[in-house]
Write a structure and sequence with these properties.
Layout: H1 6-18, E1 23-27, H2 33-40, E2 47-52, H3 55-65, E3 74-78, H4 81-91, E4 97-100, H5 104-111
Parallel strand pairs: 1-2, 1-4, 2-3
Length: about 110
């Protein structure tokens, strides 16, 4: 499925809530429906950083995120995920929950990060 289904968004909400996540990294966010679902279930000072290649779908989704009180928790980066992931790994940014929709090389980088 190419977009966040209600089932997938429910799973994101459950994971964020169960893990008491406050900082979330979502890779391959498409229009950001999953990011918004996550943002709704993290603390008010939490943050969701979403990575997406297509600027059109990010802009499209941003209009809806801005209508939600949780939308202010979302930061989107447009472009290839690898440079952002390398930067986050170097900073050891402490993301506790990660929702993935990406290639194996991104997984390899994340799993090898302390």
């Amino acid at each position: 499925e190419w977009s966040a289904s209600e089932e997938r968004m429910s799973t994101f909400r459950w994971l964020a809530s169960s893990l008491k996540a406050s900082r979330v990294l979502e890779i391959g966010s498409f229009c950001g429906a999953g990011a918004l679902a996550l943002a709704e279930f993290i603390p008010s000072d939490g943050e969701v950083h979403s990575l997406e290649l297509d600027p059109f779908v990010v802009e499209f989704g941003r209009r809806f995120q801005l209508k939600s009180l949780a939308g202010k928790k979302i930061t989107s980066t447009v472009g290839p995920a690898m440079p952002v992931l390398q930067s986050l790994a170097a900073e050891a940014n402490g993301h506790r929950f990660k929702a993935f929709d990406c290639m194996q090389s991104y997984f390899d980088l994340l799993w090898s990060t302390p």
